[in-house]
């Protein structure tokens, strides 16, 4: 495998990189020589599996920093960036900020307990506003590469209504709006921002959605290829968007679903 990111001092800062799309993308970038700083939130009982995954990342030959913290807390963000600066040294820079945070509520509006304003605000903070917080903090500290990529994961739920998905739907819509604004206002500083609209993927986060079985069946039925999107499908596109040749892709919402969105 060609390691085109090796020996360039490139790092990927992955928010939510211990499972699912974030972990698959981290592995793909590491396989091509990009160092990793992974921010995740996992309980102690999960750490044996999580640590094994991180060791697999290190086995690719890259440096891997990990932080088990709340990515939405400002003081934690400051700590991560201080440690990352030390680890990168004077030549290292953040080539990719990848936002894969999946902390939100799946309460319905008419159920008991019903969705509350606090539920909406917490979901928005973690799954949307934190993209801007991290982008601005990295930029303020001068840690971005001269050609940097800010990538985040959205879904069709940003523009469609699904039961129990209201808070996450609002967050995904806000995430796309924030990404577009980053693409516009940070472009003079060499930063490109895009959202990847991943197709339905059988992840732990998806299985938390009530009625996810029907969503899986429907997604397979409407796919031109007759299958679900996999985490590796999405990781491939993260890798492609980090390549030099993708520098002119900016401000886009890119469907990565094998064409399921067209029908």
From TrEMBL:
It comes from the Bacteria. Keywords: Oxidoreductase. One of its GO terms (molecular function) is oxidoreductase activity. Pfam families: adh_short_C2 (PF13561). Belongs to the short-chain dehydrogenases/reductases (SDR) family. This is SDR family oxidoreductase. The lineage of its organism: Bacteria, Pseudomonadati, Bacteroidota, Chitinophagia, Chitinophagales.
């Amino acid at each position: 495998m060609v390691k085109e990111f090796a020996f360039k001092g490139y790092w990927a800062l992955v928010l939510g990189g211990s499972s699912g799309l974030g972990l698959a993308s981290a592995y793909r970038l590491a396989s091509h020589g990009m160092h990793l700083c992974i921010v995740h939130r996992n309980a102690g009982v999960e750490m044996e599996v999580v640590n094994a995954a991180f060791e697999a990342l290190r086995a690719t030959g890259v440096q891997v920093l990990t932080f088990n913290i709340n990515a939405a807390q400002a003081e934690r963000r400051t700590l991560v960036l201080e440690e990352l600066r030390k680890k990168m040294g004077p030549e290292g820079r953040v080539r990719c900020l990848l936002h894969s945070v999946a902390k939100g509520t799946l309460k319905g509006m008419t159920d008991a307990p019903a969705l509350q304003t606090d539920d909406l605000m917490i979901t928005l903070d973690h799954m949307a506003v934190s993209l801007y917080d991290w982008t601005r903090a990295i930029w303020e500290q001068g840690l971005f590469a001269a050609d940097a990529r800010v990538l985040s994961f959205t879904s069709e739920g940003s523009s469609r209504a699904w039961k129990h998905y209201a808070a996450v739907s609002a967050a995904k819509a806000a995430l796309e709006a924030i990404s577009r604004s980053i693409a516009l206002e940070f472009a003079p500083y060499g930063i490109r921002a895009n959202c990847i609209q991943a197709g339905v993927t059988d992840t732990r986060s998806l299985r938390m959605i009530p009625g996810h079985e029907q969503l899986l069946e429907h997604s397979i039925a409407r796919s031109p290829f007759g299958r679900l999107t996999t985490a590796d499908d999405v990781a491939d596109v993260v890798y492609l968007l980090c390549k030099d040749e993708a520098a002119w892709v900016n401000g886009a919402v890119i469907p990565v679903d094998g064409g399921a969105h067209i029908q």
